[in-house]
Specification:
Order of helices and strands: EEEHHH
Shape: flat
Strand order of the largest sheet: 1-2-3
Helix content: 25-40%
Strand content: 5-15%
Largest sheet: 3 strands, antiparallel
Distance between the termini: 39 Å
Length: 111
């Protein structure tokens, strides 16, 4: 999944406009004159269970764990391609709520 870059209104010393990813949790920043939709950075925003991981888990369950991935068999490539094409981003509001709850729980455990 690529970043969803949006202009921030700032510029660097060379005058290039600053673009940043609009998804919560992603800190990717880019200085360029290109249109935001042309920039392809891998987003650091968390994703829900991706299709490649779900397929690997289903194969493991269906075969009772008897079939395993071997080097060069193509399983890793299939999983990576499915993850790239069919993964969904966690909604921003849900991610921010989770971060806030995690922070509260961490603060409670330190007391």
């Amino acid at each position: 999944m690529n970043c969803d870059f949006q202009p921030t209104g700032e510029a660097n010393a060379r005058g290039l406009p600053k673009l940043s990813c609009s998804r919560a949790g992603c800190t990717n920043v880019c200085f360029t004159r290109h249109a935001p939709e042309r920039i392809r950075f891998a987003c650091r925003h968390p994703r829900m269970l991706a299709l490649g991981e779900a397929a690997a888990a289903a194969i493991k369950v269906a075969t009772l764990g008897l079939i395993r991935e071997r080097p060069g068999c193509g399983c890793a490539r299939r999983r990576r391609k499915l993850n790239e094409r069919f993964s969904w981003a966690v909604p921003n509001g849900l991610y921010r709520l989770w971060r806030r709850l995690r922070g509260l729980l961490a603060a409670k455990s330190k007391r």
